[in-house]
Backbone:
């Protein structure tokens, strides 16, 4: 699971109002090279919750992203490469996503999060 | 111009996962027929709801290319694993999520998806067969095969971007003309890209897109002109004349 996906997932449990971002529990992180595509990054930037991405990449051991960011940074090749690495190249392979409100764990196995709910959570 | 799609010999399988069949082939044929438009569309985010074996999302990734990002969901945990294997065998990537339709994505992915593909569980079955575990979830569609389709359509409407397109498989028993009218009320134009009569099923692949004229009409509470409605419905009237052969139109 890429951090792009983490940035797009919220706790889906019935009644939860602050289900984003999901906390990341890490057992195994892998890095996979992805072709650099600046247009995609510029397109996605306004849709990314920046703080959630910074915290998620910190928890996965990558500390190169700035805490605060202005859209003008998108002109910097160096910044785009860091953004690219955090968003697309860091994978949570094994671990869990944890609902920030209820503490419910959604397991991530072989890179695939399981967001299926129990009957009493729907 | 030929384009690569997923190869059957590289599609992974599992006893509890639906294998690519006529409906999957028809959907990929529709994507191929619309390839030029898809490439011009330059989608950034593509999503498949109910990815099964991964045949369709893999083909979409091969057709559109890795400049876009792909997400695929399935309620069946075996299906997302099989899809992962199918993607890997073709050297393409999609993010996989084991979830019901797009549960967990609807809030943050709202209005961001440029292309959605769906081969829904469309087979008419007793209502209590819907949502069972395993392979039944791939086909059990409840009354008129519409139970899951009718849950998926509002989700697709939520997730699609302003320029978003939806490609969906339907069966004649699902009443596709009525689905198109329902989507029209939400501001979508539609067109049948492929229709196919197999031994058992009469399938349509329908493409939906947001039509700004329809959306204006909706806001102003105008009804859709009767002339347009006729041309929409006439698409469906040709089915009785299709016997024993299939006709792909692009």
Residues:
């Amino acid at each position: 699971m890429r951090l792009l996906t983490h940035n797009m997932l919220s706790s889906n449990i019935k009644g939860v109002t602050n289900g984003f971002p999901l906390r990341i529990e890490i057992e195994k992180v892998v890095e996979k090279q992805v072709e650099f595509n600046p247009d995609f990054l510029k397109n996605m930037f306004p849709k990314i919750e920046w703080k959630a991405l910074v915290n998620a990449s910190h928890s996965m051991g990558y500390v190169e992203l700035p805490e605060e960011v202005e859209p003008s940074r998108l002109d910097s090749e160096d910044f785009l490469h860091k953004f690219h690495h955090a968003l697309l190249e860091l994978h949570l392979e094994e671990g869990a996503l944890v609902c920030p409100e209820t503490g419910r764990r959604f397991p991530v196995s072989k890179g695939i999060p399981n967001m299926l709910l129990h009957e009493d959570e729907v | 111009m030929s384009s690569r799609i997923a190869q059957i010999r590289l599609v992974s399988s599992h006893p509890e996962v639906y294998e690519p069949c006529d409906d999957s082939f028809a959907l990929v044929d529709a994507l191929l027929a619309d390839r030029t438009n898809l490439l011009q569309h330059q989608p950034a985010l593509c999503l498949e709801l109910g990815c099964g074996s991964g045949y369709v999302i893999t083909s979409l990734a091969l057709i559109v290319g890795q400049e876009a990002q792909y997400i695929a969901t399935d309620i069946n945990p075996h299906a997302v694993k099989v899809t992962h294997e199918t993607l890997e065998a073709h050297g393409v990537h999609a993010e996989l999520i084991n979830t019901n339709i797009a549960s967990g994505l609807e809030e943050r992915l709202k209005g961001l998806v440029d292309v959605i593909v769906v081969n829904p569980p469309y087979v008419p079955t007793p209502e209590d067969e819907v949502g069972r575990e395993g392979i039944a979830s791939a086909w059990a569609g409840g009354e008129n095969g519409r139970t899951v389709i009718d849950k998926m359509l509002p989700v697709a409407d939520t997730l699609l971007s302003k320029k978003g397109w939806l490609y969906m498989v339907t069966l004649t028993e699902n009443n596709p003309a009525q689905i198109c009218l329902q989507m029209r009320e939400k501001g979508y134009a539609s067109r049948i890209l492929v229709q196919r009569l197999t031994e058992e099923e009469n399938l349509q692949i329908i493409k939906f897109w947001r039509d700004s004229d329809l959306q204006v009409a909706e806001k102003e509470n105008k009804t859709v002109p009767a002339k347009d409605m006729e041309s929409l419905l006439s698409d469906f009237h040709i089915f009785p004349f299709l016997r024993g052969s299939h006709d792909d139109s692009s």
User: Anything to note?
Assistant: The two ends of chain A are 24 Å apart (CA to CA).
